[in-house]
Specification:
about 325 residues; Arc Repressor Mutant, subunit A; five-stranded mixed beta sheet; globular; Replic_Relax; Replication-relaxation
Length: about 325
């Protein structure tokens, strides 16, 4: 995060912070509900595991016809799934069917379900977990969606330049652990959208591979840093124009704290390389977002370890539970 025209108060507090009005955001229950199902050991899709859903083959002619018939909202759904890989019905609704009150929210939910089922029948979407899961939404069917092979190709063909999916399609079922992390990234993206609306700021978001940075380490080694998200918020407040930049790391409680500290060390190395500052003039704040019942305890312990390490710059890092991401962003990182 940076501020091109920071106030005197922000100068006194931290060179990284821009004070702003607070906000509020409730994280999606889909993350907790999916996480409650199981916790496999792998953090990436298990190789060789095929998605049990029946695949429908969509040929070139049929795909061309589909592309011509796609409505703007259909394209938006393909685009956001091309960005995130996996989304719950509720998340698709929030991305593509915004509503301003409860009546419109109910209507948007029905329209989202109808549209998703229509795209599924067309062969461009499929369910990842078409089963009931426990957790907060115990007894309810949490539908998780992904692109089919044909949907992935359509998303690539219809995306604006540089916005096509950055991942290769695989017909493999993801592990629950990987799926939970991807849904949590989508929740952080949604919180960022809400924060930008509250701040009346323009928002740019990069996800995972598109957020990656390369830099030169000790001895001239080529290194790569891959945040879960990279954000840029640009707007104006009482103090003038500002630009806040953030890196986000999503913690679902599945990695050890030493692993989190090592990721902080990667950010420190990238910060000391000066590459980001040379490209954009500032270095973003790094926001750790914690999910799960131990979120507060893990945030406290990570902060303690960063302070104790001595080799890290504590001012670079911020910490927030999943339901406080919007508030952290609208505050500009003020602590």
């Amino acid at each position: 995060m940076s501020s091109e025209n920071s106030s005197s108060n922000s100068d006194q507090a931290s060179p990284f912070v821009r004070p702003a009005a607070p906000g509020g955001f409730a994280a999606s229950a889909d993350v907790t509900a999916t996480q409650a199902a199981s916790s496999p050991a792998n953090t990436s899709p298990r190789k060789g595991a095929k998605n049990p859903a029946r695949r429908r083959v969509v040929g070139t002619v049929a795909r061309a016809r589909l592309r011509a018939d796609l409505a703007d909202r259909d394209r938006a759904i393909l685009a956001v799934l091309g960005m995130h890989r996996f989304l719950s019905t509720h998340q698709v609704q929030r991305f593509c069917f915004p509503a301003s009150n409860q009546l419109r929210l109910d209507s948007a939910a029905r329209e989202a379900r109808r549209t998703l089922l229509r795209l599924k029948r067309a062969g461009v979407l499929q369910n990842v977990t078409p089963r009931r899961v426990g957790g907060i939404e115990a007894g309810s069917g949490v539908q998780i969606w992904q692109l089919t092979s044909a949907g992935h190709r359509l998303a690539t063909e219809t995306a604006r330049p540089s916005a096509e999916p950055s991942w290769r399609y695989r017909a493999e079922a993801p592990t629950t652990r990987f799926l939970v992390h991807e849904l949590a990234i989508a929740d952080a993206h949604l919180a960022s959208i809400q924060a930008a609306a509250d701040m009346r700021a323009a928002l740019q978001v990069q996800i995972e591979q598109r957020a990656s940075r390369t830099y030169t380490g000790l001895g001239g080694a080529a290194l790569r840093l891959t945040p879960d998200l990279a954000l840029r918020l640009a707007g104006e407040d009482a103090d003038g124009a500002y630009e806040d930049r953030w890196f986000m790391e999503i913690d679902c409680g599945t990695e050890s704290l030493p692993t989190l500290v090592r990721k902080c060390e990667q950010y420190e190395a990238y910060y000391r390389s000066g590459r980001e500052q040379a490209d954009s003039g500032t270095f973003p704040l790094v926001l750790w977002v914690f999910h799960g019942i131990r979120a507060a305890a893990r945030a406290t312990e990570l902060r303690r370890r960063i302070l104790r390490a001595g080799r890290l710059t504590p001012e670079l890092f911020r910490y927030a539970p999943a339901d406080s991401v919007e508030q952290m962003l609208t505050s500009g990182g003020a602590v």
